[in-house]
Design goal:
mainly alpha; about 425 residues; about 0% strand; extended
Amino acid sequence: MAPSRRLKRVAASQPGFLKLKADSGAAGVAGGRRKRLNKNKKKSWNKHSDINDVDAFLEDVRLQERTTGGLLSEKSDESLFFLDAGPSKNDQRVSQPAEEQKRSKGKAWRPLRIDLILQSDSLVPIPKDVLAHQKPNAKKLRRIAQKAEQLAAKGVVTRRQKRLLNRPPVKERTNKAVTEANNNPHRDYYDIWRDEAKDTSDPWFLQQTGKTRRPARLNEKPSVLPAVEVIAAGGSYNPEFFSHQALLQEAHDVEVKKQKEEDKLTKQLAVNKEHFATEEDVAVGAIVMAAKKTERQRRKERVEKLKVQRRQAKRLKSDKQQQLFQLRSIKKTIKEQEANTKVKQEQRKSNQEAEKAQPRRLGRLKFQPQDMEVQLSNELAGSLRQLKPEGSVLKDRFKSLQKRNLIEPRERAKFKRRLKLKYVEKRAFREIT
């Protein structure tokens, strides 16, 4: 027997099954001999299996549930059949609104089609949303509540309740003056051009008149150095002999300091062959490290260590007893320490004042002062006409901004070529050569 016929017969033999559609399941009953097909694979089974009769049966069951609220076979006759005697006048008056009764003038009132469309036409109850009624940690909270009720019945106060009861009362904070809204039509109008000065702390007044107070910290300069530093007298085009020599000596000291730093770096990077270990040194060191202490030597070391610790504790105890007879010297020592502390505080203040004139570390680079512009004795010009310009005004201003802590020290960005240059010999150049 074919599977489709078996399914149809099973569906039709269901107790209490009534078909609302007369042609449901009737098509395809009287057919010819069906072709044999292999259904040993899932793909082939899904392709060649006929389940239209099962779908029709399930659709008919769903239709009965939507229209009648269940299967027709399970319904009673009173719920399926009733005597239609027409609407009564009392029901019509009650169901019809008062305004509609005046307009209709005795005509039967019917709801609008749009209201009928919006009404639900299914009698299947809406499934209950289980998640809406669930609470997270419901069992745990219920258990905690039950335990709290038991403790309250016994008169036991928990630790958490004790903390809440012993908590100090919160002081009432005075609310700050709230600025009135800008869209308040009844607020005062301030004329910014009037000569009368009004002392008030109203933020709206200060905002409209532009008399806001600038914070004092914004007036502090990051450095005490002047914007333009005047060069020493020896840097003039026609300087005096001693002032010029003093400037040369200063430039000489700067160069000597640079040279010492370079020599120190070279000396640190130099390699001394004597510091390298030879094979004989390695062998001797290995032999020395191979010596192992005996148990007797280790016991002796522990005993000596205990003796030293006892001796130190005894000496410490005796020193504390002797301090009772050294109160004068202790007072004198304390006075000296206080004097040294005051000296260090003054020195620290002076250092802080001196640091204000020095450039701070604002970035990853350290400030490098500009090279001194000095002319030798044989390079001095007799007049401004013969004077050769040196340095750059732009570079001098840039260094001045760095020295006054207005910008961080910077270095020129290095251009790094991503691709290698490729030289190609053109045909015209090849023809010439």
